[in-house]
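Page 47, continued from p. 46.
Same chain as before, 186 aa.
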Amino acid sequence: MRAMELLESSPVIAAVKDENGLKRSFESECQVVFILYGNICSIEGIVRQVKEQGKTAIVHADLTAGLSQKEVAVDFIRQNTQADGIISTKPLLVKRAVELGLFGIQRTFIIDSMAMNTTKKQIDAFRPDLIEVMPGIMPKVLKEIRAYTKIPIIAGGLISDKKDIMAAFNAGADAISTTKEELWFV
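Result:
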C-alpha cells in the first residue's frame, strides 16, 4: 500500500498517547494508528496489538523512550516490530524508514517563514512518503505546502472539531491526525 492509498483508507488517523487511547482506537473506524508513546521494551507489544486489529501501525520514533535520534532507531523498529512506518521530526530517520520499505512521515512544525523554508528544503532533500504539518489548523500554510509538493499531507495538532477537519481538507490536506478521541468517530 502506498501513501495515498493509506490515507484514502483512513482520512482520520487515530493518534494514541496511552493504553486507553489505544483500546479506544480499536473501536473506531480509523485504519491508521499513530503510536505516540511507549519505550523500547513495550513498543513491540503495542504495535502487535494494532496489527492484530488489522490496522496500520505507525510509530513516532521521537516519542519512543530509549530510542536514539540516529538512523539505527529505525532499524530497531523494523527488526523488532511489525510497524508499517515511522513519524519523526528528524529527516534522516524518515529517509532511513523509506530506504527500509517503511512509510516515512516527516512531522514538521511550521511556526514562521524560516520553518516554512526549512520544510521545503527537507521535502526536496529527503523525499518523505508523507508530511505531517503541525499545527493542522492553519489553512494558509496547508495551501502553501500543497502548492509546493504532491507528497500527501496530514494535518495534525490542535484539531478540535469537525469544522477544523473540514477546513484542513479544504486547504489541501489528504488526512488529519488527532488525539481527540471523539473525532475518530465522525
